[in-house]
Amino acid sequence: MKTVLSYDTDSSVYTHSNTLLISAPFRWLRKGWDDFKRAPVHSVTYGAIFAAIGWLLVNLAQSNESYFLSTLFFIMLFVGPALAFGLYDISQQLERKHEPSFSHESKKAFSEMGHELMLSLMMTVVFMFLVIFASLVTNILAQTWQTGVSAAIPLSDTTFFYITVVFACLLFCVNSFALPMILDRDANAGTATSTSLNAVWKNKMVMALWALLIVVLTVLGFATFLVGFLVIVPVLGYASWHAYRETIVIE
To answer: What is the pTM of this model?
Structure first.
């Protein structure tokens, strides 16, 4: 028997999650590729936007501007979901036998802006908590090992990297199903987040494989001098929609 994961009081929706087979991520990618072929112009357009953002990230990383990179990271935390909504909307329209349109995609993204911003703000607070916690631990250890420490010890690049990795993992667990659910059911950020976290936990091995595939394909995109993003990003976006459709059951 399936277990109720969450209940959205705004839209009166109960959600359940299916138990997935380990082969599921490869099926999602195949379906994502099918959607890409059915909407090539829209797909390449979104891929080009992400490729441009990737180019900016690479150039900033080469200049070693850590704080500017973190600023851009926060910008992507808010802009990324809006772009992802466009890809999810394309898959949803294809699923409904409709012709995708940029106007429909933009309207859908703007209509869900409130829930999207709330989710982004929640994740921003979590990220700031991680930074503050790491900073406190760093200073406590520094004051324990040294004498005469009067100023705060800044976080090292290595520590900041580890924080970013931990946050990226958490962001993956949240966004795996939360964003598609917001677009599909107009669910609030809290319900979508709890649903996604529970579904990821229930399918830990499958989602770990899915995360690995995303990392490998992303690295491949950078290895092709970002040209690969023209295809990789939209396919991953469409695949994420199909992952949501196969995993989350809504009544």
So the answer is: 0.82
